[in-house]
Amino acid sequence: MLIACPACDATYQVPDHLVAAGRQMRCAKCGHDWHFVPEVAPSAERRPEPVEPAPVAAPPLERPVVSTPPTDAAKPGKLVLALAWVASVLAVAGGVAALFLLRVPLAEAWPPLERLYGWVGL
């Protein structure tokens, strides 16, 4: 939309959506402030055109596909998941056993560990 300053006639190109409902304006050239309200001529007024609904086509008749839930045999990932859990538990148990069985060499190598092993008795 082309807007002109009423004081100095400087023109500005402003997007319609910024001034559609009216807006307070200030001229960058002369500094004049004014409230701009767009003029809407009755003939230029936009009226929505009636939209005819598109014809609805009937969906093709098909038999529904019935799926069966997967069985345990169809899930190879279930065995892998169980083996991963077993391996994790064995790794943690092995780490705890190593800390206990190797407590003396570990305490000699790193003396602050003696506080951890103080209750076990070296």
TrEMBL record:
Keywords: Membrane, Transmembrane, Transmembrane helix. Residues 41-73 are annotated as: Disordered. Residues 51-62 have a biased composition (Pro residues). The keyword Transmembrane helix applies. NCBIfam families: MJ0042_CXXC. The chain crosses the membrane at residues 79-102. Signal peptide: none annotated. It comes from the Bacteria. This is Zinc finger/thioredoxin putative domain-containing protein. The keyword Membrane applies. It comes from Rhodovarius crocodyli.
